[in-house]
Every structure is written in structure tokens, then in C-alpha cells.
Amino acid sequence: MNPRKPYDGTRRNLLIAMDVGTTYSGASYCLLDPGVVPEIQTVTRFPAREHVGGDAKIPSIIYYGQDGSVKAVGAEATQEGILEKAEDEDWVPSKWFKLHLRPNDKDEDTVDQAIPPLPPNKSAVIVFSDFLRYLFQCTKDFIIQSTPYGVSVWESVEDNIQFMLSHPNGWEGAQQSQMRRAAILAGLITGSKEDHGRVQFVTEGEASLHYCLNNGCVTPGRGVVIVDAGGGTVDLSSYEPEDSKSDTENKIISFKEMTRPQCYFTGSIFVKDKARQYLQNKLTDSHFLDDIDHICECFDKTTKVTFKNANEPAFIKFGRTKDKDLDVGIKSGQMRLSGKDVAKFFEPSIQSIMNAIISQQKSCANKVDVVFLVGGFAANDYLFKTLTEFLKPTGLNLCRPQNYSNKAVADGALSFYLDHFVTSRIARWCYGTMVDVPFDASDPEHVLRKHTCVIKSTTDRRMIPGLFDTILLKNTSVAETTEFRRAYLYYQTESQIWKRSPRIVKIYCYRGTQQTPKWFNEDFDNYIALCDVEIDVQVPAQVNRNFLTGKTYYKLEFSVILSFGLTELKAQAAWIERVCLRLKSHKKIIVDVYVIPEF
Hints:
- By secondary structure, the chain is an alpha+beta fold.
- It has 14 helices and 32 strands.
- Strands 10, 11, 14, 15, 19, 20, 21 and 25 form an eight-stranded mixed β-sheet that branches.
- α8 runs antiparallel to α10 and α10 (339-363) crosses α11 (381-391).
- This is Actin-like ATPase domain-containing protein.
């Protein structure tokens, strides 16, 4: 791939990427030294983790005491001694907490049933922040302990750290805001606007693509589909290479998104959930029903991971040699299950992946020929074998990169920051704002909404509220440097001008099925408020007078600007103010000033 250039900064920086997964989490880092080619390092040492080296992840679990304090995190929370202490002292576990940050979706009721509730008096943001704080401390300790002169190295960068946080493909501004808030609570950054930029976001799909590119898995040619199969979600993204650009002696390879990414709540935890439903029914009349939590944990840690063939029986080893109940297939401390029954636990997840891959292929006009399977769930041989057989007739090749399950997202997130292989993305939804429009008696749609008309006191005009004005259409290809601009105007009286109350423009995205959404009340539930843009004008641009009423009002023309330079939406407003300059000759000159405030 593209050779990474030496860092051209003037002082040492540190990049830290944190991949907080539903079931497992990890971290990577990169020291940026002036004149040195950046090299990505993976954190491979965590407290209480048994194996050191290739396995670079810890369980995403936290134990809280009855007083709300953190008692154990990560691998520490799974030690046998800790488990006994947690039971004795009535500690409260929190796992799969990441899914509580997910977007609201009325079609995902099954997710609510599968994930455990948060601990009392703990929000998802607070739990997430506690875990980020732990990951950050582990990363700090690892850098200090594994780097020559580690303490002095850390002291040279601790005030100059950039953070990369990864999230599922389907998460957007609302979830990113919650994650940034968690970073503030964790002490990674302060709450100042200047510090907000030190946290950047990347989708798990795009991070995985960068990992594959850096490990030589993707070569120039046709497009690829990245399937990131994790604990909670399955994320799919499709990319194709753009035309190579010359950079002195080297060719610069870049990729563009071919179609909208997809995100499904069908990760590996839902295989366990299906198994639990089956076992609950199977053990109804057995005294082993009281052990179902332990049996499910044993299934999750061993049977689910090693399952390979639906034509052979599977076993859950959970008890002692004398444990027996032949009516439910328990003998010598293990339960015998039909391979076909276990395959049914996997079926919903595998079927959703199959359907999504075909959907991505069709949307990309069959420009893809390889599918990369990454993420923790990708380690399952039954999943890989089934998908391989399914994809053979389609001409798509399926492969798993080396170390795909351990560090793909964390390492890929740093590559995203350093390499920027992806230069354009597809807009997920329609983005715009709500406006009022003058009533037009010749427009049938206006006539239908005549009862909603309001008289604007400023101009005495009849206006129809609730029109969604699109600034960026769904499925539009968006380059990193592209801005989407839309002009608007509003009116204020002189008294309103002197009050100096800022104008707020709310940005929405439309997530419904209408190709060209128009009226807010036609599909109310699918308009999601994303953010507010503040317009604080010093001097209005134009003075108008209504000759019928004698009222004087001020007209302000402004533009709303949306950009998706990376993977985070940014919104701005721009307008022209009239400013009076007094020269030495005491003459007044009116000049126009173009204003773009920070968002």
C-alpha cells in the first residue's frame, strides 16, 4: 500500500485508539516523533490477563460495588477469586453496556430483551466512561513499561494526545456525542470546545478496511466487502479503488465507498441468546434448570467457539462427573446437543450476513470479488465454513486476515488517522432543516395544509410550517473536502435585533423510506434531530419596510453548511454582516464581512 511518510510535526505527539466492543475491547497507540515514520503498536498486556502476546483484547465487563464504585474491570472481572468476592459482597456486573448507546430503533425490540440492564444509578455514558478510563490507564502503563525511558516519554506526550474511538457503522452524531461525553468524564479530554477535536471517530467497517490494507490483504483492482462480525453487531462496508495518483516515484492508492454501509444487531451474543431460549425450554422439568446461567456461560466460552459441523453432536461441559439427567441428555457433567439444533442458534446471524453481502454486491453493480471477514465472531469456523459454501456460486471469495479478531479495529483506527485511504463516502440519510414557506393557493399541497398556516408578526405573511428542506440527499457520494451549502433567510423586528437573541437552526436527518422527503408531519417519527447551529448576527444585512402596516423589519440572508470531512458530521452557518468603518477623515464606509462561526 502507500508508503507511510515520516511525521512532519515539530513536537512529539501520541495517538491512542480504543476499540470498546460489546464483548471484548482493545487498544493501540502510535508515537509521532518528528522525522520518524509512524509505527502502530498494539497494547498486549493487561492486568490479570492470562496470556500475553498475540491475544490483545480483554472482556468488556465492569463490576460495581453497592456504593457505585468500580471494583473490577476487564480480565480482572473474570478471575475466579473475583467472582467469589463479587457474589459475597453483592457486586453488580455490567456487560454488553455498549449496546445501550445504540440508536433508537423500533424494529430492534429483540435487542432490548437480549442485553442485560445497566447497574442501578448508572447511565450507559457513565459505564462507558469508566471503561475508557481503565483502557487509558492500561495503555499508559503499557507504554511506560515497554518503551525505553518510558516515564520521560509519557511526560513528553501526556498533554498532546489524540484519541480515536471506533463505533458500529450504524452509529451517527448522537452516539458520537455520547462517546465524546464519556471521554470527558473519563478524563481523556476536558469539556472545552478546543479539546473536543482531540477525539475523533471512525466506523468499525472503515477501520477494518485500513487494517486489511496495511496487512496486504487488499490489492488494487476490483472492490471489496468488509464484514466486521463482532459480539453485538455485524457491520458491512463496500469499497472500490479510485484511480491511482502519482506522488513523485510512488502511486497513491485510495478507495471510495460504493454504497451505504449496513449495521445489524446479529453478532455472536445473539447466538448465545438463542441457545439460552432453547436450554430454558429443554431444562424446564430438570433440576439443572437452576444452573442455566452457568450452562449458558460454558456454551458461550467453549461449545459456541469450537462448533464446526451440524452433522455431529455438540457438548456443553459444565458440571461434575456424577451430574446426570439422561432425559435431557446430561451425562458425566456434560449436555449432549444435536448439531442441527446448535446450527439453528447460528442461523439468524448467518442468514443476516448472507442477505447483507448479497445486498452490498447488488448495490455495487457486482464490482466486488472478495469479502473479508473480520471481528471476534469471524474466529468461528462454522460461520466461516457456512459463508464460504454460500458464496461459492456468487463468485465471491471469502477470507480472514491474520490476527483478524484481536486488533483489526484498534490498529485500523490509527491507520485511518495516519493514512486516509478512504477519500469519499456515501451519505447514509437525507440531511436538512425545517423551514416555513409562503402559502401558495395554486399549490394543491399548500391547500391541503391551509389549516396549518400561521401569520408571521414580523412581515404579516401567511406561512406554512414544517417543510423539510434537504441540504444533502441520501446516497450522495461525499468527498472529504466537499461542503454542502443551502441559503436561507429570516426576518426580525428592530426590538428583536436589539435583544441580540441568537437564531437557532436545527439540523435533522430523515431515516424513512421516502426518496424525497418533504413534509415533517407525513413521517414524523423518522425525522431525527442531530444538532443546533447558532446564528448570532451583530448587524443585519438589509432593512425592509412593509408599506401596508408601516412596520420596519430586518432581513438576514445566511447559509447552512454541512460537511462530512471524515466520519463525523460538522455543521456551520455563514452570513454577511454590514460593518461601519470610520476613517481618519471621519467618512463612513460600509463594508461587507463574511462570517463563519465555529460549530
